[in-house]
Amino acid sequence: MSGLIRAKAVYWVATLLVAAELGVGGAWDVSRTPQVRDLVDHLGYPPYFLVILGTWKLLGMIALLAPRFPLLKEWAYAGVIFTDTGAIASHLIVGYGSGELAILIPLALLTALSWSLRPADRRVSSLARSRARGGGP
């Protein structure tokens, strides 16, 4: 397997895992499942925070998987990193179980891996080059 094909395969595996986490986590947040509600309560966030966070997770999943829209993807990746690092900081500050960190840190790293391996047509730089040549988004 060539390096380019391997990188593309790793990109898609990482991206699909990130998208799956966003989809499942977003659905749990929006539906305010008891385990997520208890976690958010323990971290000190208000219950309505789940609906806001879950909605953004679901929109982020769509943005990462949809073709084109590289600028939207950049914002989605940023949102996922903000969410992951915010969750890590919240867990550390409140002293919540370190077992959660064993999930949260790899998710943040997986997001960074997906972002770093994204193909050229999913990068903002490709949008700028297309506009410079007179093409549309």
Automatic annotation (TrEMBL):
It is found in: Membrane. Keywords: Membrane, Transmembrane, Transmembrane helix. The chain crosses the membrane at residues 9-28, 48-66. Its main location: membrane. Pfam families: DoxX_2 (PF13564). It is a multi-pass membrane protein. GO terms for cellular component: membrane. This is DoxX-like protein. It comes from Actinoallomurus bryophytorum. The lineage of its organism: Bacteria, Bacillati, Actinomycetota, Actinomycetes, Streptosporangiales.
